User: Fold this.
Amino acid sequence: MSEQQLAETEDLKHILAVLTPKDAEEILALKDELKDNWNKKQIFRTETEMRISVLNDAKHPTPASKYWQSVREQSAHFDAMMGLSFDLRRNTVDKLRLEKKLAEAEDELDAMEAQIDLDQNLYNRACMEQVAHDRVREIQTWSKLKGELDDGTFDSQNVNTHQTLSLHKTLQNRVNTLNASASPSEVMNALGPLQTVERLKTEDNTLLTFTDAKKVHLLGQKNK
Assistant:
C-alpha cells in the first residue's frame, strides 16, 4: 500500500498502520462501506421498538401508563445526555493537555505516545458525539409519542393518579401468563400485588389507605 493511499483515507490511517499489508488492503477496500456503516448503525431504540417493545400492551395497558413510561424514558435519555455533556467537556480539556504535551515532547518516543493518546481522544469524542446525536433523536421521538398519547382523558401532571387502574390491568396480564410450570416465587410475585390492589382499589380507581381498608374488612366480617 502506498503512502498516497494512506493519505487518501485519513479516517482509517491508525488502523491501517498496524495491520499487515494484506489486511490493510482488505479494510481499505471496505472504506466506503465502513463509513456508511458508521453513519447508519443503530445505537438506541428505533421508533418501532419504542412503540412495540417498550410501550407494549401487556406491561403498559392504558394510554396513561404508556404516556408516563414515555416520560420516564425521555427523562432517562436527557439525564444521560447531560452526563455525556460533562464527558465531552472533559474530553476537550484532555485534548488541550495532550496537544500541549505533544508540542513540549522532549524526545521522539514521548511525542509518539502523546500522538497516540491524542488520536484516541479524538476517536472517543467522535463516538460520544454520535451517541449524543442519537440521544437527541430518542428525546424528540419520546416527545412525539407523549403528544400522541396525551388525549386529555387522564392526568398528565401526577404520575400516581393513573396507577391504580393501570397496575391492576398490568398485574392481571402477568397472572394470566402463569401456568403449571411457574415457580412459587413467580406465583407470589404476580398474585401478591394483584390481591393487594384488588383489596385496596375503590370503584373510582383510587386506593384505600391501610387504615380504611382495615375498617372495611372489619365491617364486612361484622356483617357476615
Summary: The chain is about 75% helix and 0% strand.
